[in-house]
Design a protein that fits this description.
Elements: H1 8-15, H2 19-31, E1 35-37, E2 43-45, H3 46-49, E3 71-76, H4 88-104, E4 107-114, H5 122-134, E5 142-148, H6 151-161, E6 166-170, H7 183-189, E7 194-197, E8 203-205
Parallel strand pairs: 3-4, 3-6, 4-5, 6-7
Antiparallel strand pairs: 1-2, 7-8
């Protein structure tokens, strides 16, 4: 918010985030040049506070390559076919994708694929998905999309349409984590790297 300055403790309260998450996000935003750390311990938007005599305008780092991840596609799943909240695997995947989005200043698309037959109203699915995402801390980084069809086909189609640089998937804790039977097909057809998030929070690129 233009003109707003917050301390780390105030960020924790405002975003209902723990200390580690707040500190990591603030470091990432300062490193990206979006926020500036003030001498009084507060943080403010760089483009707003850069004109202040106490804050020098940050210079770009020489030789720093641009981030390779500008668009991240995250496959999510609601607990029910037509309403939230997000499943445990989807929540873990979206949280990991959001961390990457903050760090790399990337835009995230949360995609819900509904297998046929679809529910009576796809609008209710879209509304439930938006509501689940809105409850997240960094909701401003995330777009939502709902598609009907095969998970592998729709995921590849949307990734291609939005020119995704990375796909993030979550693995469920049930059945040894094998919650995506179409995973081999997704990996074979994906137009970009696929990051698989384990229930423990660890991730691996496939």
């Amino acid at each position: 918010m233009p003109g707003l300055r917050l301390t780390k403790a105030q960020v924790e309260r405002l975003c209902t985030a723990d200390g580690f998450t707040s500190a990591s996000a603030l470091r990432a935003l300062v490193s990206a040049g979006f926020l500036t750390s003030m001498t009084d311990g507060t943080y403010g938007r760089t483009d707003i506070v850069a004109g202040s005599p106490e804050v020098p305008r940050p210079q770009p780092r020489a030789g720093t390559p641009p981030s390779a991840w500008r668009r991240i596609l995250c496959l999510v799943q609601l607990e029910k076919k037509d309403r939230g909240p997000l499943s445990t695997a989807a929540y873990s995947a979206l949280r990991y994708a959001t961390t990457l989005g903050v760090t790399h200043r990337a835009r995230i698309t949360a995609l819900q694929v509904v297998t046929p037959p679809p529910p009576p109203s796809l609008k209710s699915v879209a509304a439930a998905l938006r509501q689940s995402v809105v409850e997240g801390t960094f909701r401003g980084l995330i777009d939502t999309s709902v598609a009907v069809g095969s998970v592998s086909e729709e995921l590849v189609r949307v990734a291609t349409d939005i020119h995704a640089d990375l796909i993030v998937l979550g693995r469920g804790a049930e059945a040894g984590g094998q919650s995506l039977p179409q995973l081999p097909e997704i990996l074979r057809r994906a137009p970009c790297p696929v990051l698989i998030v384990h229930p423990s929070g660890r991730a691996a690129v496939a």
